[in-house]
Amino acid sequence: MPGENGKLRSEDWFGRNDKLGFLHRSWMRAEGFPGSVFSGKPVIGICNSWSELTNCNAHLRQVAEAVKRGVWSAGGFPLEFPTISLGEPFMRPSSMMFRNLMAMDVEESIRANPLDGVVLLCGCDKTTPAQLMGAASADLPSIFVTGGPMLKGRWKDRQLGSGTDLWHYWDELRAGRITHEEMCEIECGMSRSAGHCMVMGTASTMTSIAEALGMTLTGCANIPAADSRRYEIAHRSGERIVEMVREDLRPSKILTREAIENAVRVDMAIGGSTNAIIHLKALAGRLGVDLPLERFDEISRETAVVANIQPSGEHLMEDMFYAGGIPVVMNDLLDQLNGECITVTGRTISENVRGSECHDRDVLRSRHRALQPEGGTVILRGNLCPRGAVLKTSAASRDLLQHTGRAVVFEDHEDLMRRIDLADLEVDGESVLVLKNGGPVGAPGMPEYGNLPIPAKLLKRGVRDMLRISDARMSGTGYGTVVLHVSPESAVGGPLALARTGDLVRLDTAGRRLDLLVDDGELRRRKQAWDPRPAHYDRGFGKLFLESVMQADEGCDFRFLRSTGTAEPFLPLAF
Question: Angle 213-214-218 (CA atoms, 0-180°, nearest 5)?
């Protein structure tokens, strides 16, 4: 990044006429690079979250090569570096537990090395928000290249959406409506290529949000991973980051309050994952932007759901790309967006998307044909969630949005798995399933436990959905009438900890309320008798996490990573 004297930041490593300069140039020559390629040229880091343990990002080594071609062609010097990679399907207890660790890894890798700009390669659920958070905190010129969704799944004559159809067909298996052999066929046909989930889960939501924020080239987010245009846009992104360094176009100039509100509105319009609220809250905290939960709800009330994509709709992300993708959504929303927000292209949102043509209005609806007139997610308050909870109405059952039922309470995920399919479980279709100890501290790491399974005996009677409540998260690919992120969580003494089987619970979505219908005196008595559980960890990152993590309504970041209002200095070199 050019300083006040126009000097590149990397020149403080490679342009010095002293012992340090000699050493740095000598060590770079050890990789076979002649001095002409790193002397006086922008050094571009390629931050790669590739890993064979992150199947969504397994193709990013090839994407990185395309980025390098672009950097070279624009006169820059590309250097690829790895960070930890968060694989949503595999990591335990939850990839969410390690989002902040990856964000720290990204930030400090950028900060510590001789880089003038950075291209960030991401895709899987937590890799995109972690890189956004790290890049925002480091504040060097940055551009994102997302990995793209995988190809459509296929079984017999049916398309399959990863996650969404997994939950659907798993319930069909548990109900006895399909066989184990058919389930094996579905398993083999669901994930047919590299790339992240091809429904509007958290991965597709967050890559779409990266574009809505202005951090990708226009049209980047929804290109399928297997499409050659993914590599073309990677090449062009490599060219563009070199220009961004020369323009000193940094995240702090792009990630404004207005840009974040644009992202919230796009999230509501596409029926995005509930997890986006946590990640956007965390990003706002990194930027020093106040983003109360109420603002999400205000924007939701004004924004129709227009993306007819699973789990809220019928189609898949491949179809969304063919229909025109995020540029079409944003063009249709321009009268509700902050169109003057600058983007990595150097142009404004309006200039980027105005006139984008939709090629399939069944996939990307116009507002007068919207899936629902208000946004996909609402914010609830009440005595069960005094600091908030979320409900994805676009994936919920209409008849359960106003509901009162008897609670069936599970103390933790192990208790849930042990009892949910017992024949003598006292539960019916009107019951409310309640899970405790699924939050950041209680689980730990806030896993995707929130989409509680329907009891097998009810599935066999034809029950397809129930009201479910927890302080956990839910996969963005999930669906159903599921209240999540109850805050404060039960493990720190939130009201959810006081719920007991037999209590009445009332959900009033129109009034944005979630209440435990127990008198205040009884709740006070239960609170006095409540004891916290022992901590999960007494050392290492787990201990740091438990001591530092904020609640869901604050974004689950570490408090010490939030913006202090002053930029962290890049320390001078010493040897």
Answer: 125
